[in-house]
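Supplementary Text 2. Reproducibility record for the structural model of the 366-residue chain.

All settings were left at their defaults, and a single model was retained for analysis rather than an ensemble. We include the record here because the model underlies the residue-level annotations in Supplementary Table 4.
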Amino acid sequence: MERTLTFDVVRRFSRGPVISARASWALEGAPVTVLFGPSGSGKTTVLRALAGLDRPDAGSITFDGTTWFDAARGVFVPPQTRGVGLLFQEYALFPHLSVAANVRYGLHGVPRREREARVTEIADRFGLVELLPRRPGKLSGGERQRVALARALAPKPRLLLLDEPLSALDAPTREALRGELRHLLEQAGVPAIVVTHDRTEALALGDRLAVLIAGAIRQVGPVHEVFSSPADVDVARVVGTENVFPSRLIRREGGLVVVRAGGPRGPVLVAVDPGGVEDEAYACVRAEEIVLEPFDGHDSSAQNRLPGVIARRQEEGPLVRVTVDCGVRLVALVTRASADRLELVAGRRVSAVVKAPSVRIVPRTA
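Retained model, structure tokens:
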């Protein structure tokens, strides 16, 4: 039987929206799920309910066949017996304790010999052996992140929950640690849910995306599919990037990176090299950055000039959303006047032109 997480969480507040979030997904196959949405959408509320830190007003939560919460039956499993690891924004390390003592903190009740063996094992896995005697004030941002994650994983949790784990860092540090966090989550071997409102973090960290808007889960699916094919206009506005393609590095040349987008038959895209891309990545293009031109059948020296056929035209007030099949489905947003002038209708051949700086490459792993 497939292991799943299923929740139907209702939480009412005196102010703000009612949180009524319902979703279910398998625990295998996609280790990191990103709970994504704008500030105030209810992400942390859902996370705290899953952790058992807050008791919902109604609904239920089931993890791998075990009921953690059921309002109708009066079931509420306390957080300490759910087997959940938590990582907060500020990491919440104890400043007066050594790294070893911080990692050991969650192992109360474990026999001493087993406890020390577990600290040694996880310190070795996360490269913390030399840091064990130090206190958090003597660590870098990346080292504190590894210690916090090691502490959360030391008790061997069944589920790992991370609440905006990079938001407290400055932009350069956040950029540097994003890939390392993804690598550590892959190493952990524990299903994880990461809360974030940052699109780049969602792409870099997640395998699955659950979009939360105004307290409700609006779409759940593989990260690139949700970004590329939002279920409705509200999800499209929240994710903000209509074109996201799994890509593979082909080569580097002169400060640029060349990738194959969307699979072995997908188009080749040229982008500014962001660094950190060794093999797999996501290629991201905003719909308004794509220029559609009549197809003339001639080769061009322009980078990222992709021949294709219009698959769909969708009116959106003064704008028109045009989907072009270029080996991948590419969504362009143009004015109604331009769409009419170019006769952009289904079946028409066009060229989609994208400047290299408009193709954003997000490294997939560290």
